[in-house]
Specification:
Its EC number is 3.1.3.11. By secondary structure, the chain is an alpha+beta fold. It has helices at about 5-15, 25-45, 65-80, 220-230, 245-255, 275-290, 320-330, and strands spanning about 55-60, 65, 90, 100, 110-120, 130-140, 160-165, 170-175, 180-185, 190-195, 210, 240, 260-265, 290-295, 315-320. Bound molecules: 1,6-di-O-phosphono-beta-D-fructofuranose (FBP) and magnesium ion (2 copies). One magnesium ion (MG) binds near residues 118 and 119.
């Protein structure tokens, strides 16, 4: 393993792909790598340090923040702010985007980042794998001016890079900058990420479906029909149901083994649960770069026009043939495509 490229070497080797010649993009990826190691160190010994349980606050989405949500958010925010490595950051745990003003009050950087600092919060206290998700864009407003909302509300197809860290049996950082998907495993003894999963790809087909079936009665009919199809005794079915409850971990498993992750609308969550900007868009970019597919059941996730920082959308993501099949069932109920009109 140690002969493999380290993540740092890989980033430098692949600088030729980045339109940024200033090294700014490489430094941004290196800062993410550093923050991931710091969070990993805490996550790995969560039971021994006072980091489990609720932080006692509620985020803008009305969710109880876990201490690890707040910790991971602070680590990523401070790591990037202290290095003045981006001009703005938006986070699941911050009400609004944060403009990074350099020491001299201005910031010449061209990248903004959106982040889900700790994904799978419900699993934090029970020692089940969790993650971090990030998405990077080039700003659209003039460099040197204060960053604006429109720099963050860009369609997913404008992403420059996206990735996740999974804090699981091993810790991995998986990312794309538009040239395929590569996975790096952390060697905790050496403290370096090594290329362990080059050119990751979703199998076109799979036999795993991931969805919180506890919400079954609330699902749209198209989803109920697709689940019946998955559970039918026919051909290579029934499929296997696997649901960790951490998007990053369910996505990672399905990318390796073949499968589909679904978080649809429901009568209790009329727009679904997952956030477009820092959960669905980055995972969709990774999925497509790994020959998978990601839609809201009807439309390509990365073509959706964001309107709010924390907006939610339904999410169907994974092996292309499985997402196509799910869409076939959804297409029979076109009225369910209008989830955005349900204000
Ligand atoms: O408990 P539910 O409703 O099945 O939701 C689980 C989903 O919600 C999430 O935990 C949402 O992410 P956060 O933990 O970052 O809020 C996903 O990781 C996961 O797939
Ligand atoms: Mg999340
Ligand atoms: Mg989160």
């Amino acid at each position: 393993m140690e002969n493999n490229l380290t993540l740092g070497e890989f980033i430098i080797e692949n600088q030729k792909h980045y339109k940024s010649t200033s090294g700014e993009f490489s430094r941004l990826l290196s800062s993410i790598k550093l923050a991931a190691k710091i969070v990993n160190y805490k996550v790995n010994k969560a039971g021994l340090v006072d980091i489990l349980g609720d932080a006692g606050d509620v985020n803008i989405q009305g969710e109880d923040q876990k201490k690890l949500d707040v910790y991971a958010n602070d680590v990523f925010m401070q790591t990037l702010i202290n290095r003045e490595i981006a001009c703005g950051i938006a986070s699941e745990e911050e009400d609004d985007f944060v403009a990074i003003k350099g020491k001299h009050g201005t910031n010449e950087n061209k990248y903004v980042m959106l982040i889900d600092p700790l994904d799978g919060s419900s699993n934090v206290d029970v020692n089940v794998s969790v993650g971090t998700i990030f998405s990077i864009y080039r700003r659209v407003t003039p460099i040197g001016t204060p960053v604006q909302q429109e720099d963050f509300l860009q369609r997913g197809n404008q992403q420059v890079a996206a990735g996740y860290v999974v804090y699981g049996t091993s810790t991995m950082l998986v990312y794309t900058s538009g040239h395929g998907v590569n996975g790096f495993t952390l060697n905790p003894a050496i403290g370096s990420f090594y290329l362990s999963h080059p050119n990751m790809e979703f199998p076109k087909d799979g036999n795993i479906y991931s969805i919180n079936e506890g919400n079954y009665v609330h699902f749209p009919q198209g989803v109920k029909d697709y689940l019946k199809y998955c559970q039918e005794e026919k051909d290579d079915r029934p499929y296997t149901s696997r649901y960790i409850g951490s998007l990053v971990s369910d996505f990672h498993r399905n990318m390796i083994k073949g499968g589909i992750y679904m978080y649809p609308t429901s009568s209790i969550g009329p727009k679904g649960k997952l956030r477009l900007l820092y959960e669905c868009n980055p995972m969709a970019f990774l999925a497509e770069q790994a020959n998978g597919k990601a839609t809201d059941g009807y439309v390509r996730i990365m073509d959706l026009k964001p309107t709010e920082l924390h907006q939610r959308v339904p999410f169907f993501c994974g092996s292309t043939n499985m997402v196509n099949k799910a869409e076939e069932f959804m297409a029979k109920y076109p009225e369910d495509a209008k989830y955005n009109d349900l204000d």
